[in-house]
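INFO  loader      accepted 1 record
INFO  loader      residues=423
INFO  predictor   begin
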Amino acid sequence: PAPPPPRKAPPRRRAAAYAQPPEQPGPLATATVEGYHSFVPLDVPDASRRSRTPSFLCKATSSVDGEAYSLRRLDGPPVPPEPLAAALAWRSLRHPSLVALVDAFTATGPAADGRVGRATYFVHELFPAAISLERAYFGTPGSAGNPGTPPSMTPTEDGLWDIALPLLSAIHAVHSAGAALRIVDPAHVLFTDPHTVRLSSIGVLDAARPERNLPLPALQSEDLQALGRLLVSVACQNAGAAAPTSLRRSLSFVHASYSADLSRLLMLLLSPPEAAHASVHDAVALVSGRLMTRLAQGAGYADALRTELSKEQENGRLLRLVLKLGLATSRPSLPANESYGDHPDRYLLRLFQDLLYGSSDEEGRPLISFAQAVHALNKLDLGHDGRALLTGREDGAMVLVSYHELKQVLERSFGEIAAAAEQ
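INFO  predictor   done
INFO  writer      dumping tokens
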């Protein structure tokens, strides 16, 4: 079954997106590149090891929308205009299993070592706390002074299909659009959630290493071969399991350890181009049954998300109401109305606040009832005809007033503040 919608994941992702390390002196700390600032190096395996394009990956904040993005700076001379334009074509391709390309440009900015120069930058969506498939299943090798990290995930049948089906769907979308990915390898596949994988760095190779010698069908066939090698490596939890010298032995292990469906998919993906003209459409047809199951799971997950979204919409509605109530009652005066805070309207609203926040039992102990407060706020927002008995904590005054009248008072009071703000 699809995983339940995680309620704590969005706040964690937001915190990770805006997390800042201790300030370090140097050009990186104060640099601004084409409206992007607050650069933070990302602690992820550098995908340039696979693409042979040395680069520097960091998180940066856009001054246009205030959002954080992934910014990759290619080392070396700037990319010529023609291949850069080819890379920018990827901006129009959106797919749930692709990390979207936002922009690509040439500008002057600092490199990882602090040296400033002109270079080509790629801006992609940022998925905070994402981990590469390479790190998840193979760990990171140790070096002098660095013991490395062990794998954090163990391959399973369900886990392999969680990788295979989304990536196959992404390849299908790209091939149907008349393009090829050329980046299907463990370093470029990210776990953005425990059950969600996405291909990153799309468009980078088209600019850094444009392929002019191979026709498109050959490049697309290589995408399928690469997916097959990736799945074999993960299934064996060995980065070298798909090497030509090990592939036969690795496939025997997969046949013995996993389902026949997975074995058939691997045989199709790894079939030599000259032996069988398999396309991504053939691979999709082969796993159509599992795709239908995943489609049903996705629909159930979407229903659960819509339920959570409706709750958050209600929370937002009540938050706006509480903010308006606080703005209307906390201001003692306005420029054109010195006695604003002493008006009977504000007195009624303060009494209503006492009902929300100042209720006590017979012995004077605070009464904390979120349900009662939410019920009262909902009636206020609707302008319900029901009545509320308001009691002043200081003077003991008691007022019986309808929620409809309270809503009119609140709108009138907030309208005065809004009008004063626009003067």
